Amino acid sequence: MAQSSGRAGTGEPKERFDSPTFRGARGSFAYTAGKDVTGYYFDFRQPGAKQPVEGRRQLDYFVGSGSAARSYILNTGGFLYEAPVAYYRKSESWNFAPGVEIFNYPYLTRPIRPGCFLCHASRIQRISGTENAYASPPFLEGGVGCERCHGPGSDHLASGKPMVNPAKLPTMERDSICEQCHLSGEIRIAKPGKEDQPLPAGDRLMSLLTVFVRAGSPSELRVTSHVENLAQSECKRRSGEKLWCGTCHDPHTVPAASEKAAYYRDKCLSCHQTSSCTASQSSRQANNDSCIACHMPRNPTADIEHVVFTDHSIRRRPSRAPTPSATADLVPYFGGEPAARDLGLAYAIIGSREGNPTYTERAFRLLQQAAANSTADAQALAYLAQFYRDRKDDMRALTAYEQAWRMDSTQAPVAAALGAYRMQRGDYAGAIRFWDQALAINPALVLVRANLAEALLRTGKPDEARAALQKALEFNPAFQPPQDLVERLGR
Ligand code: HEC
Ligand code: HEC
Ligand code: HEC
Ligand code: HEC
Ligand code: HEC
Ligand code: HEC
Q1: Which atom in ligand 1 lies closest to the alpha carbon of residue 246?
Q2: Is the C-beta atom of 119 inside 6 A of ligand 2?
Q3: Rounded Cα–Cα distance for residues 487 and 483 (Å)
Q4: Which residues contact 319 (CB under 8 A, 6 or more apart)?
Q5: End-to-end CA distance of the chain
Q6: Within a 10 A sphere around the Cβ of 411, how many other Cβ atoms?
Q7: Would you say 295 and 264 are in contact if contact means Cβ atoms under 8 Å apart?
Q8: pLDDT at residue 180 tops 70
Q9: Residue 479, CA distances (Å) to 223, 379, 400 in order
Q10: Distances (CA, A) of 468 to 254, 260, 330, 434, 485
Q11: How many CA atoms lie within 13 A of 129 on its CB side?
Q12: Does residue 245's CB lie within 6 angstroms of at least one atom of ligand 3?
């Protein structure tokens, strides 16, 4: 955990460059990773084209220790984006980062939001008012620092206040320490204004965010991370608070491969007897009497990030978990009645991610409810506005966008939409003002740049229009500006 992020090319290198080239299924671009004195980089190239689009980007930081995989971060003028290339340990090769293989151009515009660093790094330095700009360096400590589990060391030094010992906290607070990073659920919705905040050691995760899962009994829960998976086990269900992550794991060390079987057998035998196992002696001996070899097997999906490799449901005989219904209700993992705003956002985000109209419909109703009882924050209003816009209800959309902007002028989609409404009305100066603000929040909005170029041209600023298009190419090298715009610019 302590090695989960840092500057690319520093620390113990995990990467090999024997197999540095790969290409997309659609074949349009080839990518090659490399290193030189300045660090790691990757090249992209469109083979066969008359005027091939090509370029190079530096890989500034890594995320992930690389025990399975490693992601990288691009730094464009202080704004951070996830690199489209990643390194995979098992195959010892470079390939697409998860999810970007579907793009047939170099995808350089996936913003690194604070959540990513909240789980993989410590003491993050985000620049407020932006979506993804950070000071240099973006985090003062790579990986998971002591304070994330033990509370601030300064308290300890200054006042002699004892550091938090997670194992001695009440159950919910204890479990929250690991859950802040190891409980994904289907989605986590931060309370308004808490997106950036690490969990203070000793607090409950629920005070910071709501974790939503699809409804069903624990054994039906879809496993998205280790916490849900362990909750499915008979061991956890029958021993309750006595069993937690810390029963088997010491967060400060990882047992060596040769000691693993004995290390974990010891943990099992803190509750079970050697005789509790009903398997035959001979089969157990054949497996070196490794309890985990039979009861906690490793699944073979061993090449990606954010999957549970080791089956934490500790079954008698390993079996596959059922797949839940895609339209099952979303419910808070910790129970209770969720706020309309939180549940509405959860349905909205998963609904659009999965293209699930049932969820989107529920989101629309819940967010209307939240707006009606004044519990909608700017993020909720922005989604609600988008729903109105999708329904061509521009009057309500515009009202909601404006209300969202008054509450919080740091949401790029809101500024982009307000600019579009100004443009529609022929208010080019107003459009330019909003689009400039959107781009100050996140400069990689390529379509906003194209629209901005149009508005600049119409107000008699062809040089600025050209610069806006030029800048768009930095973020999407394969970007084709609208032909008529290019002609009017007389290039
Ligand atoms: C601030 C976030 C964070 C917290 C808090 C956290 N983890 Fe982790 N943990 C991670 C990340 C990220 C990884 C993956 C590291 C990697 O390979 O890059 C990880 C990996 C692990 C691993 C795999 C072995 C290793 O060390 O890489 C174990 C086991 C683990 N965590 C247990 C725990 C337990 C137990 C707790 C609670 C006491 C806990 N973690 C709290 C983020 C966290
Ligand atoms: C909610 C916490 C959380 C967030 C947010 C998160 N991760 Fe992770 N990540 C983890 C944990 C925990 C692990 C290790 C265990 C696992 O795979 O579940 C992990 C594993 C990984 C790994 C594999 C590391 C290895 O073991 O080799 C990579 C790569 C990675 N994450 C990249 C990212 C990137 C990039 C982002 C943001 C864009 C991100 N993660 C966001 C918690 C998180
Ligand atoms: C991922 C969470 C996590 C991180 C990070 C972490 N610890 Fe711990 N630490 C724990 C847990 C859990 C215990 C309790 C172990 C037990 O008693 O079973 C513990 C116990 C300790 C203890 C013994 C405390 C006592 O009262 O007996 C010390 C000392 C300690 N940690 C120091 C550190 C230092 C120094 C770092 C940073 C290098 C660090 N820890 C990082 C989770 C963490
Ligand atoms: C905190 C105590 C505790 C620990 C640690 C623990 N278990 Fe269990 N386990 C239980 C309890 C309680 C049950 C319920 C049935 C029983 O009493 O045997 C159980 C049940 C089981 C079952 C039966 C599951 C079923 O579907 O009926 C298996 C298999 C098992 N444990 C294996 C293990 C293994 C392997 C380990 C170590 C990796 C382990 N347990 C660690 C408490 C524990
Ligand atoms: C009954 C023992 C046990 C408990 C309890 C347990 N784990 Fe594990 N965990 C294991 C074993 C065994 C492995 C595999 C270790 C290996 O192969 O090196 C593992 C591996 C992991 C890994 C590495 C990735 C993977 O899937 O192999 C992470 C992360 C992890 N556990 C997190 C957690 C968290 C978080 C909790 C609490 C929700 C937890 N574990 C509770 C036994 C346990
Ligand atoms: C060779 C694989 C293997 C090994 C090694 C093994 N088990 Fe089992 N274990 C099984 C199988 C298979 C069953 C189920 C047998 C059955 O269905 O009757 C089982 C059943 C169990 C049960 C449930 C017994 C019941 O109440 O029905 C427990 C608890 C258990 N094992 C614990 C352990 C522990 C603890 C260890 C390590 C000391 C261990 N096992 C090692 C394969 C194994």
Answers
A1: 35
A2: yes
A3: 6
A4: none
A5: 52
A6: 21
A7: no
A8: yes
A9: 38, 29, 31
A10: 50, 57, 42, 15, 12
A11: 4
A12: no
Asked whether the beta carbons of 210 and 349 are under 8 A apart, the reply is no
Q: Residue 189 has what pLDDT? A: 97
Other CB atoms within 10 Å distance of the CB of residue 131: 23
Closest CA to 232 of 242, 244, 241, 223: 223
Ligand 3 centre and the CA of 124: distance in Å?
Answer: 21
Q: Looking at the predicted structure, is the pLDDT value of residue 78 above 80?
A: yes
Least confident interval from 107-116, 219-228, 444-453: 219-228
Residue 362: partners with Cβ closer than 8 Å, 6 or more residues away: 344, 347, 351
Report the pLDDT averaged over residues 289-298. 94
Q: Which two tokens stand for residue 250?
A: 């010491």
Question: Taking a C-beta distance cutoff of 8 angstroms, is the pair 212, 331 a contact?
Answer: yes
Q: How far apart are CA 32 and CA 20, in angstroms?
A: 5
Residue type, 410: T
Above 70 in pLDDT, residue 378?
yes
Q: What Rg value do the Cα atoms of the chain yield, rounded?
A: 25
Give the tokens for residue 229: 């998976």
pLDDT of residue 302: 59
Please report the atom of ligand 5 found closest to the CA of residue 308. 26
Measure 246 CA to ligand 5 centroid, in angstroms. 9
